Hints:
Elements: H1 9-21, E1 31-41, H2 47-50, H3 52-61, E2 70-77, E3 80-86, H4 90-106, E4 113-124, E5 127-136, E6 141-145, H5 157-169
Helix pairs in contact: 1-4
Amino acid sequence: MISFFKKDFLNELWLDFEKLLNIKNDEYDFNIMPISGLLVSNLSKNDFFKNLQSNLEVILNDGEGSTDTKVQIIKDSEDMNWIMLSDDQSFDLLSSIYTTINAINSHESIKNVIGVALKFSINFNDLTEKCFLIYRMDLQSFYPFAPTSHNVGDRNEEMEKFLFDFLKSKKINLENNKRNWLGLWGIPI
Length: 189
């Protein structure tokens, strides 16, 4: 069977999460916001996906190493859903995203995960801007996304370039080809 995912993509993702958690920069005041989302397709009809919210709540909130991460499933379209995760603790939020992806992977449904949208704030041109860092599962890399409205096509490319350069300097695994920086307008955050 052919796999489109590197064997250790989860390890590489966690290393990037650790780098994000370790960014300390007073000049740009980089902060991970307390909510993020995973865009997933409904193609998998296994038992894990049939009871996705309750399964994730058990995995994330019960037992040793549990978090207080809240889980909500939001329907995006006929065949797409958002798994919204919220937690005031940045480490717990990123850990819960990682655990969610790992759980989906262990139930042989990783191809259902389209991407992850991490929301954060950063000081840009003396204004605090809220934007996203998108992780595309098919590319296994991040890219910045700074929508200026919910209208498709409205984005702040100057901000995205700034973010790209800033995160590249922090050694985050970023997608270099801008043609692959797909917009995700209407993220329910």
